[in-house]
What we know:
The complex is a heterodimer. Chain A is an alpha+beta fold.
Amino acid sequence: MLKKEISEVLKHTIIFILVVLLLPAILLVTTIISDQSYFSVFFPVLQFGLFFWALFMGVSLFSGDRSQKGMEYLLSLPYSRLQLIGIKILPRLCAVILFYIAFVYLYKTGGFDAAATTFIPFTAIYFTLFLLALSLSAFSDNFIILSVTSLFSLFIYSGFLYLVYWIVLKIRGTPLGEFDFKELLLLEPGLFLWLDLPKFLPIIAIALLLPFLISFVLSVKKFDVRPSRVLNKRFFKYFTPIFVCCLAISFLFAYQGTRFEYQEYYLTQDKKLIESNYYSKIRIYDGDNVYKTEKKFEYFWPLLDEDEYVYDLWGYNVVRLNTSNYEVETLYEASEKRKLSWLRTKYNNTIVFLEKNEDLSGPELVLLDESSRKITRVAIEYMPLMDYFNPFIFGTDKINDKRYWLIHSPLVKKYPILRIWEDGRTDIIGNSQRRPCYVNGMLITYTEEAIIINKETEGKFETIREIPWELDIAFSTGWRRFTNIPLKELYGHKHNKIARLDLETLEAEEVGEFSGYLLYSHPGNYYFLETVKPGVSRNIHQLKEGKMKLIKSFPDFDIRKGYSLRAFKAGIVFKKDKEIKVYAFPDLNELKFKKL
Amino acid sequence: MTENILEIENLRVKIGRKTILDDIGIQFEKNESVVIAGRNGSGKSTFLRCLANVIFPDRGSVVYNEGITKEKIGFISDQISLFENLTVEQGIRFHSSVFHVEDFDYTLINDLKFDLSQKIKNLSAGERTLYHLSLLLSQKPEILLIDEIIHTIDPYLREKFLEAVIELIDRCQTTVIMINHTFSEIEKIPERVLVMEKGQFILDEKCETLGEKIKSVVSEKETPEEIPYIFKRESSFQKEYFIYPFKEEFKKTFPYEYKELSLNDIIKAFVGGQYVKEGN
């Protein structure tokens, strides 16, 4: 019986392959499509052909037997219904999977550029279509009705998936944001869609598919030659309650999932814990209380706090949260078209970042006065900045009362460091193969052989110290902010050693073994999270004055599994699954938040 | 007492609101040969399909004797259902592998001079019937279920078919349950006759005693009410009554000339009676 099914599937496979290979050739030869390569026509044809293939493999479960008038013979064979279904499904499932593997290979080896739809939507639709078509394969004797019903079911299914997601987000009070479901339905290419896919979405997608599959298995156990309406009645008798249950489960999963998706925690200097995630309102935990804000934006990713404010300088807009009255303000609404750099910087009362000018013809420096909300735009006379990838403002200073800002982008050829004056002048003051930093009035840059320490003299940066070390070290104040507060030391790592740069003697030294992560809570505060084996961490050490001091041990946790530990000026936030623990400096006593 | 090979209890099959089989309960014995007759649409084929596992009853059970597996049940439907796209040889190999037939008997195939490479769909109805039967015979079934197919076969093949069935009954002690309307050629086969009407069996008698229980009477006048009849055939000058159940004392009490009936006539009487009932 299995050989017969395999033979039938093989026959269909050969026909399918021939059609998919020949159709692009026909289109090109007949100049219906011209000026394109065979592969660039073949790949989209293959994609849509595979959708049809998935549909066909699903609905054809019994169509061959019906067309051969062999249904009664089939059902009289010495197999149970489930055995029969299993024998029929197996070769079809293998064919679907094998073609999918071939598709993945072609996609990765060049199909990406020619694809009509991106990977995730294709995969989702391909397998969903197959499974839906399979579960409806006994719905009718007519192949066309089966195909139309399956396609219609796909739309209904997608609609319910979207409905669950939409309702939950409405309940959460969140706009849909960057993850736009329409992209999946309309098959528009979304390059990084896979990165932003909510984790709960596959779960509810499966939950909503289960009623079809379970109802099919239960109803087909008594599949016979009576008119299909008898089976359909049985199918819907099972389907309705199972679907209602699965819909309820989907809502719960989505609701819970949106609670914890992309969750971030930030501990302020006055020991308030900020919780934000992609969908939910921002929560501020303050001792025994918790406060929620009304969301006005898509995502709040706090980077720094000063006084009573917590700032999101990374996201789409510039946003700050007032931790006294729990109000959220958008200080600046960015334009997607004009964005030149993702990261903004705050210095004193000024938030500074780079954008393209209004007609997108050149770069400009944007200075936002936090108090007055006044925006000053300074045109920058340096066109190559338009081609920089995510230029990073890493320092600022003044010469003769004229302020300048230091900018670097490590992915630009020759790695120039720009100095941009607030009157628009730009000069290239040096190069650095690694991210430079500006601290204590010194500019620290990197060549392949050495660490170069520069100091400004009469408007120019001159080398005052060169420390010969191989590349693979970067001292940093942390990438989220810079400071003009004098520091005593910097830490980085060099190969498997922790390195320290004394900012008074300008001497570099190795401090200890590096097997873990350097954590920068605040300029001047350094911590080291030690890994005990690949991916698994345990101990946190403070780095100060060249010494490494163990300050806390945790139960082993695996960063690869989404566990995290972040250090802030006020303490540490430790996250393991949904367990959050907060420890306050200096003694790292646990901070209790009653409603966390 | 011969053991029951098959027991049916409270069998009910519906399609939509229409009840096809209505709480049927019946048993079949080993090596029994049974003919089922009845009007078109009475539920005979549905009943047979339930026994063959081709239709699942909505209620009730079909219980085979311990040791009877699905491999030991042979079924030919009135559709003569097979995988038409296979060749004769492929069909034989397929059937043999599924039913674990080690030595396929090509006798009937050779007698009929089938081309093994031709597709099953190219066989005539009669050829397909014999071909299907040869497949079933090879699996040496303990129960053979045959729907109304004899009428599709020419007289020569019909004789071959019936010989094969008889041989099966004798050799393998197979229980044969067959649906048929005409009995002139198969009178040697059935030991038991069932007549189905509206999803119920209205007659279930052994052939050897059936002749004693059904007789006909020709009369110009109406017969007394005490004589039960299942069917009355009228012509302009006489009436023929088919009496069931006949009792010997009728001969004394009602001195008519009671005629013996053939199996064919008996079945006609039952079927005809239903038509008359419905007409009334």
